[in-house]
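Input/output pair, single chain:
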Amino acid sequence: MDVTLEKAEGIGITVRAPPSKSYTHRALITAALGEGTSILEHPLDATDTAITAGALAQLGIRIDRDGENLRVTGSGGALDCPGNTELGMGDSGTSFRLLTSVALLCRNPVVLTGSARMRERPVGGLVTALNAIGGRIRYLGSPGFPPILIDGELAGGTVSVESSVSSQFASSLLLAAPCARSVVEVEIPPGAVSLAYLDVTADVMASFGVKVQRDGYRRFQVIPARYRARTYRIEGDYSSASYFFAMAAACGGRATVENLVPASVQGDRCLLEALAEMGCRVGSSGDAVTVESDGRLEGIERDMSASPDIVQTLCMVAARAVSPSRFTGISHLQFKESDRIRAVLGIIRTLGGDATCEQDAIIIRPAHLHGGIVDAGNDHRTAMSAAVLGLAVGGVTITGAECVSKSFPDFWKILHEVGLV
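Output:
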């Protein structure tokens, strides 16, 4: 599917944020491991979250749809999965990583596999940690990469989880830790990225009755316990909302996004701080957050290691600024659904911009932009971030635009409804 974007100036839109992908994945898992039946209200219905739900069903969890809600019958932490179970994770790195530790709770070995791109995404940090506390996980292909055979048990103990590629390694272990035989202590060495997602993990675990003891982002402790079933409403997604805020910044005008928690622990909320630093006005009222801009943007310097999912979006805004921007802490972006560093450089350069990569930084300088054709590269965040710059420049066609279904199936529909597509 191709989408062509014409130039939009002085936009004025009000939209509703979809449910959070990060919260939906984690709530599905905690409910599945809990005692009793949980109701997940308004979970995200997208390709990635469907992969997690489907995999849990293969592991013996009953998940029923009830209108816009999901009814999850918990296992009490003991997964009765059949022998020869193979979980195909497609392109969902979140599903693969979070469910690796969960699969260790099965009484039979489980194989986790995925797409060709998934087999290029490292999981060694997680496998090494799990094997140190009872796992007998082995690689079925290249060492350090999927597919993997998961065997052994989650015995518990103290373990260091290398997290320079993704904090999902630590989140995976934490989510399964209440079901371990003994106390689990997770240590995070220096150089970890995406740390704000550990706040989301701890938040969901606490909501289902398991409190994580922690020393900042250095050490986490989980005592064996049972998740308690409950009715749980999934909050709105700041990652998805970021594209609309960025459109107001890059095109000039106003964007209001409803269904957000203003004080959310979601790390991507920091986009609002970045946009304010660039010259936008940011405000909130109830569950609505508004960004306004007169279209004049100043370049900024910012460490993005904690919020990788908004790097592409912020880079598109920076391409419209009147002074250079520099974003550091981005090297791990090469291990996402695509090499997102290459994607950023490709989009901006294709549209006439000036973007370079130096060690662990992307530098974007002012340049005259023009239309062109952008290939989304089967990466949902590449497609949606390209839409930001496409609307600001005009005459931009995004090919393979249907990949937004991975996290935000209604993205193009919403843009059409507000008159931007």
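The radius of gyration is 21 Å. Residues 100 and 172 are 7 Å apart (CA to CA).
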